[in-house]
Structures are given as structure tokens and as C-alpha cells.
Amino acid sequence: MDEKIRTLTRLIALIQVLHERFKSRVSTNHLKTALYSLRELLKGETITLGGFVTICATCKKVKNELERWSPVEQYIEQRIDIQFSHGLCPTCHDEALLELEE
């Protein structure tokens, strides 16, 4: 990953952590503006997440920098500009139908 992208990605993560820890003491607007500006700089860039992440083997929640557990989708959405939608793959769809029929 390009060093610029790596640095900007770290800054985004840092701003999000600061916002979470100090949201009652720091202007949310200032943090949101900084986060928006950094995301604008990264638009069109390919971003990959790296490193180790602790994930629950049962519920798949991820432990963040604040030692809090959150859904994997939320963890990823907070680090890169992506939103998830949910659906069912063909296998899970068939299994859900079988459960409903029982």
C-alpha cells in the first residue's frame, strides 16, 4: 500500500478513536470535518486493512482499539468508506426455507 494511503488510513482510525473517547469534550463537528477531509483525500484509492484483529469465534464480533466488541461490519465501516447490505447466499437461503417448513 502506498505510504500516503497508509498514513491517511491511520489518521482516519485515530480520529475515530478520538471521537469515541472524547466525544463529550471535543466538538463533534471538528472531528467530523477532519474525518470527511481525510476521506475525500482517499477517494478513488484502493485501501486494504492489515494487521491482526481479534474476532470472536462464535458471534464474529471484533475487538477494537478501545477493547470494545462490535460487529465486523461496523468495524470495517469505521475504517474505510464502505457500507454493507445483507442478503442470503443460496445455501443459507435453502437452509432458512427448510427451517421455516419445520
Alpha-beta classification: mainly alpha
Q: What is the overall shape?
A: elongated
Determine Rg (CA atoms, Å): 17 Å
Q: Which residues sit in consecutive blocks of at least 5 with pLDDT less than 50?
A: none
Total beta strands = 2
- Classify the beta-strand content into a percent band: 5-15%
Report the span from N to C terminus: 50 Å
Oligomer: single chain
Order of strands, main sheet, comes to 1-2
What percent of residues adopt helix (DSSP H or I)? 40-55%
Specify the biggest β-sheet.
2 strands, antiparallel
Order of helices and strands: HHEEHH
| Overall pLDDT level | 76
Helix count, per DSSP?
4
Tell me what the structure shows.
- It is a single chain.
- This protein is mainly α.
- It has one domain (3-101).
- The chain has helices at residues 3-22, 28-42, 72-77, 90-101; strands at 61-63, 69-71.
- The chain has a two-stranded antiparallel ribbon with strand order 1-2.
- Strand 1 and strand 2 (69-71) form a beta hairpin.
- Helix 1 packs antiparallel against helix 2 (28-42).
- The longest helix is centred in the N-terminal third of the chain and has 20 residues, at 3-22.
- The mean pLDDT is 76.
